[in-house]
């Protein structure tokens, strides 16, 4: 008899497998689209996009206070 936790872990594993395979499949299209841009533009875009996504996730999961405490402890 399988436990609920084992079933949940299997589902998460399958989801991770699908996301990673789709990501590897789409990655060449991403690199091709970036071929006309210079490195500084790509870096700036990635930094800004990461900041926006991180703030959105912190707000969505209501973890911004824990994040602030962790940064303040540095």
TrEMBL record:
Entry keyword set: Membrane, Transmembrane, Transmembrane helix
Taxonomy, superkingdom: Bacteria
Ranges that cross the membrane: 12-31, 43-61
Protein name: EamA domain-containing protein
Species per Swiss-Prot/TrEMBL record: Bifidobacterium bifidum ATCC 29521 = JCM 1255 = DSM 20456
């Amino acid at each position: 008899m399988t436990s609920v936790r084992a079933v949940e872990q299997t589902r998460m594993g399958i989801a991770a497998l699908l996301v990673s395979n789709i990501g590897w499949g789409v990655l060449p299209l991403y690199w091709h689209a970036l071929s006309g841009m210079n490195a500084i533009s790509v870096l700036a875009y990635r930094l800004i996009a990461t900041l926006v996504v991180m703030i959105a996730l912190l707000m969505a999961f209501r973890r911004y206070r824990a994040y602030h405490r962790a940064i303040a402890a540095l």
